[in-house]
Input
Amino acid sequence: MRIQTVLELPGRLPKPILTILAFLLVLTIGSIDLSAGYNNVSIALLYLFPIILITWFEEGIPAAIIAIFSAITWSIADAASGPVYSHMSIPIWNSVMVLGMFSLVAYCFATIKKLLIKERAHSLNDGVTHTASAAVFYEEGQREIKRAARYKRPLTLARLGINDYNRLAGTLGQHTAESQLRAVAETVIKTLRTTDIVGRLEAHEFALLMPETKSKDAEVAIHKVQEHLLDMVKQNGWPVTFSIGVVTCTAPTCTIDTLITMAGDLMRTAPDDAGKRVQYRIVDSPAAAS
Output
């Protein structure tokens, strides 16, 4: 699934250029620090900006190098400003403490970034099945529909429901029911292409978005999904079946809400063919999309 994580700038600069800019920023701050004279605390704090910048967007070795380079630059500016110390160990101690402070800032910001990415990932994904959340699926779906309309390409959306899910949860327990949801999601994801998007819409319903997929190709893909799901529940001894509604859109006026509603209606009215419930529809005109 192609769901973006976060904390990346649009049109982000290449790593080498960003690192060079950080070095130049440190040198500029060092020059200002040198001209400002000894013990200018407000200038010394400016060294934190390039450290935070490179830590936020690069982390790892580049962040450590910038922190060390900033500490060295600060030490040189401090020594060149001509302070008189009562003992030769004092400037060494000051340099070590500055390096420690710069390294601590880099570590803290790297940790904050990781926590934010983790939190963002949880908000993007369904907590039980690790598929896309309903909100993300709608957003990605609408983006794909606009792209399909722009380039006049087909797009297929399927809605898959687990029949007898509530009975299974009541009989075998919620833990088993959630295990089944995860197994269904994993089976569907493994069966589909990496470019397809799988999301959990409701408690026991999933949505499958397949860009660049016409009706015949969708039938082949859904047939594979259905066969793999039935094999999976048979192996686990779960007494459930699946209903699937599939809508292929070639009209430029499709919306994600319309396709999900249509697929839901098809899913609920799909005829039972030896335990295989699936129903298809093609939307090839603005009237059919309404």
